[in-house]
Amino acid sequence: MTTPPVSELTARARDVFRLVVEGYLDTGQPVGSRTISRISTLNLSPASIRNVMQDLEEEGLLAAPHTSAGRIPTETGLRLFVDGMMQAAQPSAEEQAQIEARLARGGGPIEDALAAATAALSGLSACAGIVLVPKREPVLRQLGFVQLSATQALAVMVGNDGSVENRVIDLPPGVTASQLNEVGNYVSARLTGLTLGEAQARLLEEIAQGQAALDQAAQQLIQRGLAIWSEDGAARPVLIVRGQANLIDQAAAADLERVRQLLDELEGKEEIARLLDSARAGQGMKIFIGSENKLFALSGSSVIAAPYRGGDGRVVGVVGVIGPTRLNYARVVPMVDFTAQALSRLMA
């Protein structure tokens, strides 16, 4: 359903709608006409408020979970509220200090600071904190091949950080053990200390200029080995998640199946990483509400995410939170934005 613009609602409808949404986000419970009559300055009777709520329900902005209950906002209604009516509140000085202190305590590798950022966001927002770590190409120290059969070999890559990864690859026809040694010697002499992308470029340049001193089978073997890790690394962004326990709050206890579904979704980090990766293309905050993203259609969860930048000003990762659609968006959205800015300053 298309979200109607705020301007199409009457002033009375806007006021009633805002009170229903704010009441629901605060308590997690349906909001009734008597409650609105009691807390508002609208000078409307409960019966008049019920009529307005009925109109909003017909617009697809509110829903009645039970016949005798009050109303709750639909996902369409939440989107209208977030985009057009929400009064965002900047994080307090104390909250800002907490976030910056956690980042400062991270120290060491940037991953430590990113993990600290997710923990800080999780604690302050009562959601699960998430961060997509910048993709880093490993720096090559060694690439060797151990023949397994006439058609396959084990490719072993050693990174400058000491990491070791193995992959089974298909051999070009007729490759001999001496050619496998030749490959290892060439990599050690010509490609050590380069990223995978740099190593691929160097190899292609030397082949083009006739400087590679490798036969065609050996050239193919190195190209194939480098390509495997380049493609694999690009497909495996690193996602850090903290604070899943925050998702099991008192309101969620009545809907344990939804919580279980969300926790299952958090286990599938690759899918969430791809969702966050889509936010890298944007210049600002991304808010996904419930089934707007098919990943969270079953659990009815929301994601608030903001990109952060490296020293050259380019977007390198995404930080945010995952929680129920009943989030305090006005508080959490600027909190995520501040954390993204703090990470950008840290990486500058």
Key terms:
about 350 residues; alpha+beta; five-stranded antiparallel sheet; three-stranded antiparallel sheet; 12 helices; 10 strands; about 45% helix
The proportion of strand residues reads: 15-25%
Helix segment count? 12
Shape: elongated
Main sheet: strand order? 7-3-10-9-8
Helix content: 40-55%
- Mean pLDDT comes to 81
What is the alpha-carbon Rg in Å?
27 Å
Describe this structure in words.
The protein is of the alpha+beta class and 348 residues long. It is built from 12 helices and 10 strands. It has helices at residues 11-27, 33-39, 46-58, 75-84, 93-106, 110-125, 177-190, 196-208, 216-234, 256-267, 269-279, 329-347, and strands spanning 62-63, 72-73, 128-132, 140-147, 152-159, 164-170, 239-242, 286-289, 301-309, 315-324. Strands 7-3-10-9-8 form a 5-stranded antiparallel β-sheet, with helices on both faces. Helix 2 (33-39) packs across helix 3, helix 5 runs parallel beside helix 12 (329-347) and helix 7 (177-190) crosses helix 9. The mean pLDDT is 81.
